[in-house]
Design brief:
By secondary structure, this protein is an all-alpha fold. It is built from 25 helices and four strands.
């Protein structure tokens, strides 16, 4: 293992007998940096490259000088911000290109066996990586962090030559990925670097990256306010992208973590205590479900044709994940947890719509409408602002039983109903499948419609669109020439028609647009406050 055998002996140190509190070494100047850069570019000078890297090492360890660390005994010393910036930018710009000349990258990899100068270059590469990692630890400015990560992409073929540096690099960029101090641009660059690493490094690095990005996401998935939702969504999308790089490794990690969620749920169902319920009804657990929902919906649905092997590997996890979400919905089925139920129903709808696997959603959606909150209890009047349930799992106490809270729930329930009907709107059995739910909805409208006039009118519009869609399916069905026993023909029925183009599909899309506009208004108002 070259990584364990090689040392950084080529990094020269000044006389250690001098007091560490007084930095020694040659003072770096602009003319020295320019001379080294010119010599490296023109003559491919290893000597000048070595001097530049020693200066870069000193610059990256400047913050440790007061502690009497190795930076105070370096061959060079850096004084002033301008010299620091010049040293760092010159090294980052020149060193990777110089390594490329001395140990060329072919097809994304460094051929260490055929590279005659690798024995000389490797210590220089490790010196550069040491300085780069130290800078990543110290930097707090998002622009500078983006610059360092972007430039480090050129070093990935060299990083993967050393297991220790690969681990340290992955650990450091994942720390930045979860840091609240960085912006979205940093997180996207971290994803790109991880994808490149995974494509070049051994399977051990793939496991570290997949495990690391998921656990980093979970650790930082607590929703504190509206603005944190966007960050969590981006982190989730990045994680989902990385899980599309290796089918075998992705399945192994998904299986382990989905199984962990199932064990937590089982323990909660057996203990049935407040503490056990809190272990499930929290943002980390729900956002873990969101993560795996998106992974399976993406690679077993949206992009199944692009990566059929990955789809075939992950498809067996759809059923256990669905069962976990159903268990979470039923754990505490009370009105105060309607927001959490809506989150879970959206997850199930996402899986069903993307994969085409039927999940009986309508009964669970209609259960909300048949709650005593709507059927028997009179809602309390309130002047509270509308509740944005995207950032809540449990209704705040001041909102309990209020009309403003129940109106938000009804808006989301009707949106779910429209989406659920739309997802099945091109199925050959849609007219018959929709009948029980239609009867329940009409009965609910007749019973409580007077108390919720606006929503009664909206429900009437929904029922009309369902009837129109049933009529469309019946018209198409009257023209088929196969028997009901022909499953292949039934599955191919209306396959050229998008659910979005059916009457209920158009209606559902319009409702989603209205909800998105309302959400944007609420977010804007909260940000201003």
């Amino acid at each position: 293992d070259e990584d364990s055998e090689l040392t950084d002996q080529d990094i020269e140190m000044a006389d250690s007998s001098k007091p560490p509190s007084k930095p020694t070494g040659t003072l770096v100047t602009v003319s020295m940096l320019d001379r080294w850069e010119k010599d490296i570019k023109k003559n491919h000078s290893i000597k000048s490259l070595k001097q530049l890297l020693l200066a870069f090492y000193s610059a990256s360890h400047m913050e440790n000088e007061s502690e009497g660390s190795e930076s105070s005994k370096s061959a060079y010393r850096i004084e002033g911000v301008n010299i620091f910036n010049k040293t760092v930018s010159t090294a980052i710009r020149v060193a990777p290109a110089a390594f490329g000349q001395l140990a060329p990258v072919v097809n994304g990899k460094v051929n260490r066996k055929k590279s005659k100068k690798w024995a000389v270059v490797q210590a220089l590469v490790k010196s550069y990586l040491t300085g780069l990692l130290e800078l990543l630890k110290q930097m707090s400015d998002p622009t500078m962090i983006q610059y360092l990560i972007k430039e480090s992409e050129r070093m990935v073929p060299y990083i993967v030559c050393f297991v220790r540096y690969t681990r340290n690099f992955v650990k450091e960029i994942l720390r930045l990925f979860g840091s609240p101090a960085v912006d979205d641009g940093v997180r996207i660059l971290v994803l790109l670097s991880l994808r490149q690493l995974v494509s070049l490094a051994p399977s051990e690095v793939t496991d570290i990256a997949l495990k690391g990005i998921y656990l980093t996401y979970v650790r930082h998935s607590n929703v504190k306010n509206i603005s944190s939702l966007t960050t969590i969504q981006l982190m989730r999308n990045c994680g989902v992208e990385l899980y599309g790089t290796d089918a075998k490794a992705s399945y192994q990690h998904a299986f382990v973590y989905i199984r962990q969620l199932a064990i937590h749920l089982r323990n909660s169902m057996q203990l049935r205590s407040k503490e056990s319920f809190r272990a499930i009804y929290n943002w980390q657990f729900i956002n873990s479900l969101n993560f795996w929902t998106e992974v399976l919906a993406t690679y077993c649905g949206d992009r199944a044709e692009e990566q059929p092997g990955l789809c075939a590997t992950l498809e067996s996890l759809v059923y256990p994940l669905t069962q976990i979400i159903l268990g979470v919905v039923r754990l505490v089925p009370t009105a105060k947890y309607f927001p959490l139920r809506i989150h879970c129903l959206n997850q199930l709808l996402r899986i069903s719509s993307a994969t085409g696997i039927y999940i009986p959603l309508l009964p669970m959606i209609i259960e909300v409408l048949e709650s005593p909150e709507f059927l028997s209890r009179r809602p309390l009047k309130s002047t509270l602002k509308p509740l944005m349930i995207e950032s809540h799992l449990k209704v705040p106490k001041e909102y309990e039983h209020t009309r403003v809270y129940l109106e938000v729930i009804l808006e989301n329930v009707f949106g779910l109903l429209a989406d659920a009907f739309a997802s099945q709107s091109v199925r050959i059995a849609f007219p018959e499948w929709s009948v029980p739910a239609i009867l329940q909805l009409r009965r609910w409208r007749k019973r409580v419609g007077g108390s919720w006039a606006r929503f009664s009118k909206q429900l009437q519009g929904l029922l009309e669109k369902i009837d129109q869609t049933s009529l469309l399916v019946q018209q198409k069905r009257s023209k088929v020439d196969f028997a009901p026993s022909n499953l292949l023909g039934a599955n191919q029925f209306m396959q050229d028609t998008s659910p979005e183009r059916t009457p209920i599909g158009v209606y559902a899309a319009a409702l989603r647009k209205i909800r998105a506009q309302q959400r944007a208004t609420l977010v804007e108002a909260e940000v201003e406050n």
